[in-house]
Design brief:
The chain contains 16 helices and no strands.
């Protein structure tokens, strides 16, 4: 008698586990979150609010990408917010077109770097590009020193970057006396606000106004952030360097025995993190039309680490994807936006964010255990 095997359909629990372990799990959560809240918050899907969500998402994505590299080696970079602040000040003081003595005459850089006529690169044809280069150089130096202390001196990443955060933040406030540096060139401001595709129809009906908003979504911040994301994805998930980063996160000693240049990789990871902070600083400063020494303070670091962890990057190292970080940023920005639409206080918002990040860390532990059971 012929043996006929019957394949049983997958159980609901198995399908849920597959969904839970999927790379797109956080994206599905984001869509479900919008679907649940949209009927109660009609403004959530309004074109103007979508534009606001995207404008908040792009610079955060860049910073979170840098943090993803650090988390992948089981480290942490607490100095990203301070790097955003100091590079914002450096870029602004080089290209500001004019400065009021009443505002910055007491700053240590007054008379040497800043004058009433502006910064040293004001009016220079390539001044904006040179200012951005200076921001990246400053960030590279910060990342290099952080990485050197951690990789060569074997100091804890938490302590090194905590000291960097405090010192650099204080320095940024000191050299400007906590004053913003405004009056930046329009070519710089366009990097944070400028549209690449923008059409004005001149009509007043609602459909065409909405269409104009949709066209304006293609902006320089979007192009810059997505370019950084693509490059980072290839670097982390498609190159030998990326495999070395993940190997260090899994087991540093084993990576050293296998011939991985651990010290060099760690230094490069912190340099990448700092450069990402500088690029985000360009977008933040351009959007705010000023160099601000207090950029990156408050709950900024909570947003950055939260977005990376929610996406699926492990706090224990060895597991990270740029795609996960992208989805995590989408969810975290949506969360922040909806909490603000609910008119919650900043304290309530931070409490909710903290709870979500803790839940994400718990989910990471559960996902890791499920993956281990499946591979047995």
């Amino acid at each position: 008698m012929q043996d006929i095997s019957v394949t049983k359909p997958s159980r609901t629990s198995d399908r849920f586990v597959d969904l839970f372990l999927s790379d797109y799990f956080i994206l599905y959560m984001s869509l479900a979150y919008v679907a649940v809240l949209a009927p109660f918050l009609p403004i959530l899907l309004a074109p103007a609010n979508i534009v606001n969500i995207l404008s908040n998402m792009w610079p955060l994505l860049i910073v979170a990408i840098g943090q993803t590299f650090v988390l992948a080696i089981a480290g942490i970079d607490l100095s990203q917010g301070a790097t955003v602040a100091i590079t914002s000040v450096v870029g602004a003081m080089l290209i500001t077109t004019s400065v009021s003595p009443d505002v910055l005459s007491n700053a240590p850089i007054w008379g040497s770097v800043l004058t009433e006529a502006g910064g040293p690169l004001a009016g220079v044809s390539s001044g904006v590009g040179l200012a951005i280069l200076a921001m990246v150089v400053v960030a590279t130096l910060i990342g290099f020193l952080n990485g050197l202390a951690i990789a060569v001196l074997n100091m804890p990443a938490f302590m090194v970057t905590l000291v960097s955060m405090i010192t650099i933040s204080a320095f940024a406030i000191w050299i400007t006396q906590s004053e913003n540096i405004a009056r930046l060139p329009e070519s710089f401001i366009a990097l944070g606000k400028g549209d690449i595709v923008s059409v004005y129809f001149g009509a007043k009906d609602e459909s065409q106004i909405a269409r104009k908003v949709i066209y304006s979504l293609v902006t320089w911040p979007m192009v810059i952030a997505l370019t950084v994301a693509v490059v980072a994805h290839v670097l982390l998930n498609r190159t030998v360097f990326g495999r070395q980063v993940l190997a260090i996160g899994i087991n540093r000693k084993a990576a050293e025995i296998s011939g991985v240049p651990v010290r060099r990789v760690i230094v490069l990871v912190f340099v990448i993190s700092a450069i990402c902070a500088a690029l985000a600083s360009v977008l933040y400063s351009a959007r705010l039309e000023a160099g601000r020494p207090t950029l990156g303070e408050g709950a900024f670091l909570l947003d950055v680490i939260g977005a990376a962890v929610i996406g699926g990057t492990s706090l224990f190292g060895g597991k990270a994807k740029i795609l996960w970080t992208f989805f995590g940023v989408v969810f975290f920005v949506l969360l922040s936006n909806t909490l603000n639409l609910m008119n919650l206080s900043s304290f309530q918002v931070d409490m909710v964010k903290g709870g979500v990040i803790l839940s994400a860390a718990l989910l990471d532990v559960v996902r890791t255990r499920l993956l281990r059971e499946r591979t047995r």
